[in-house]
Design goal:
The protein has 6 helices and 6 strands. It is an alpha+beta fold.
């Protein structure tokens, strides 16, 4: 993954397969691949499967809402591990998300666990999370 751009790496990895499909539907795959040094809180397949089938279908059929949700997972600036215990970050969607925790246990917005962090791709740092984040209304 370290030599691939982030959307390409997601497409070839089993854990974020549904994220990869959603990025393509929202036409964000090229946008993310062309970005540099972006942090991505990537929802795993489990995160997408936690939605009901109706919720998942509704989200995937609404390109604007899908784009809004997915860009909420991308932070607009670099994040260092020392910022995770009590972080607040601007997202590409425009809202803020927060991180909290210590040691090896971190959460995003107090709802999503970071299940694997600091995965490096050619243009991003990825943290896999176990829930789909929803931007504030």
């Amino acid at each position: 993954m370290a030599k691939q751009r982030v959307a390409d790496a997601a497409a070839e990895s089993p854990q974020p397969a549904q994220l990869s499909s959603a990025l393509t539907k929202a036409r964000l795959d090229n946008t993310l691949n062309q970005s540099d040094n972006i942090p991505l809180f990537a929802p795993t397949n489990h995160a997408f499967n936690s939605l009901s089938q109706a919720e998942r279908d509704s989200l995937l059929k609404d390109p604007e809402q899908l784009k809004k949700v997915l860009t909420y997972h991308v932070v607009d600036d670099n994040i260092t591990p020392s910022q995770l215990p009590n972080g607040s970050f601007q997202t590409l969607e425009g809202s803020e998300l927060t991180t909290s925790g210590s040691g090896t246990s971190y959460k995003v917005n107090d709802t999503a666990d970071i299940v694997c962090g600091n995965i490096t791709t050619a243009n991003a740092t990825v943290c896999l999370i176990d829930a789909l984040l929803t931007p504030p209304a």
